[in-house]
Recover the amino acids of this structure.
């Protein structure tokens, strides 16, 4: 029998739990600001915002691409394009006016870059988690992403280790759009993709839910804040590779054989606190923000972990490694190349989008074969 | 096993990474840059997934 005291206790528990979560997040930001510096605390807060928006409003990248491929539902992809467009409206003039202080997410187009984006697109559909998605899912208790995440980091480290060899196979110089003309071309390109999606979509799915519009606007605001605070756009993969590189270095590994990790800039970052690395801070914030939202929700962390056969866990490990390795060759993941690349004028972002979407079509087919879902 | 367990494992792993790194490379608040890169007068120097290595920390 439920008593009045039980009802009061049940009502009070979420308040304490939620209050504790918010206080813990604020304490993490404050501690980072005091221990390392205000800029780093602010970057952690931006990362928390990313995690809260992505998990709280269920804004993703892999899922919406899957929805478009399987159900011809373009809503999530439209939201991604809207967010990119909003960032580009602010980022292009900011970059043009502050070239000495801010930089875009620029990468060269090349054979390895295109192949890397294709593999990334396939692997992100296998584990149903992209760069940001794997962090969000791990923070909210998804076991597949938790298993994939450390291998994502190892793959990112290994991909960077071999990056110069792969890029030497053939790459163009970095090609960028800039200024108001660049912004106009980018907006036209995003509109053209949105129109193509309209044409390809199923009529009953031609809608953009308000939840995704809100998420797109908030994500764009956070991405612009990331650019203003850090001087560089939002990224994910570099930070994960740095974590593995630091671990390898601490274990006595000799990184002098890698042109990437032995470059002076990389050596400098290996000897500095991880809490001074911008992408590491936003990655940490995304995991914490996703945990905060999952813990906030009633029953958000009480679901059982689904049973999966051994083959599925092996697939998660391999796909995790490939996500990291391929995204380094591709000069970014869905965040660093697609979202930040396009919104700051790098043409490699557009090529990344096309190659990764083609890879996703195969990844969607691979997922059931690898026992990560029931065969239909 | 519930998602609470796996989420807590993720947080514990994150805490371990930060703690191990802090013991090897202690943070130094006295070398902190200005709050915002915009208006700081300094070139961006963070690592990024799109960047090829170069000598200046970019």
């Amino acid at each position: 029998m439920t008593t009045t005291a039980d009802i009061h206790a049940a009502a009070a528990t979420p308040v304490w739990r939620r209050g504790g979560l918010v206080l813990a997040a604020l304490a993490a930001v404050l501690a980072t600001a005091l221990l390392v510096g205000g800029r780093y605390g602010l970057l952690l807060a931006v990362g928390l915002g990313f995690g809260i928006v992505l998990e709280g409003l269920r804004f993703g990248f892999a899922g919406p691409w899957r929805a478009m491929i399987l159900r011809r539902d373009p809503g999530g992809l439209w939201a991604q394009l809207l967010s990119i467009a909003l960032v580009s409206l602010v980022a292009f003039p900011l970059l043009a006016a502050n070239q000495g202080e801010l930089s875009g997410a620029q990468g060269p187009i090349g054979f390895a870059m295109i192949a890397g984006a294709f593999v990334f697109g396939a692997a992100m559909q296998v584990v149903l988690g992209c760069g940001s998605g794997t962090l969000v899912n791990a923070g909210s208790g998804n076991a597949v992403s938790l298993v994939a995440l450390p291998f994502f980091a190892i793959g990112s480290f290994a991909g960077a280790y071999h990056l110069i060899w792969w890029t030497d196979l053939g790459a163009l110089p970095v090609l960028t759009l800039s200024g108001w003309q660049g912004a106009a071309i980018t907006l036209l390109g995003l509109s053209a993709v949105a129109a193509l999606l309209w044409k390809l979509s199923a009529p009953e799915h031609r809608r953009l839910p308000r939840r995704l519009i809100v998420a797109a606007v908030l994500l764009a605001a956070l991405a612009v804040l990331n650019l203003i605070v850090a001087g560089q756009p939002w990224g994910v993969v570099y930070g994960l590779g740095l974590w593995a590189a630091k671990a390898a270095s601490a274990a006595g590994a000799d990184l002098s054989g890698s042109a990437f990790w032995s470059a002076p800039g990389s050596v400098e970052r290996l000897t500095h606190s991880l809490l001074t690395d911008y992408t590491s801070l936003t990655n940490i914030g995304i995991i914490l923000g996703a945990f905060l939202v999952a813990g906030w929700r009633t029953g958000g962390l009480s679901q059982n972990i689904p049973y999966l056969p051994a083959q599925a866990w092996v697939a998660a490990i391999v796909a995790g490694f490939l996500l990291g390795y391929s995204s380094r060759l591709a000069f970014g993941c869905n965040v660093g190349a697609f979202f930040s690349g396009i919104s700051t004028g790098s043409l490699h972002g557009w090529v990344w989008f096309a190659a990764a979407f083609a890879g996703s079509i195969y990844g969607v087919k691979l997922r059931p074969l690898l026992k990560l879902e029931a065969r239909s | 096993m519930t998602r609470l367990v796996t989420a807590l494992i993720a947080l514990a792993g994150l805490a371990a990474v930060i703690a191990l790194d802090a013991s090897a490379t202690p943070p130094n608040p006295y070398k902190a840059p200005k709050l915002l890169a915009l208006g700081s007068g300094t070139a961006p120097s963070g690592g990024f997934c799109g960047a090829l290595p170069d000598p200046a920390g970019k």
Summary: The radius of gyration of chain A is 21 Å. Residues 18-369 of chain A form one domain.
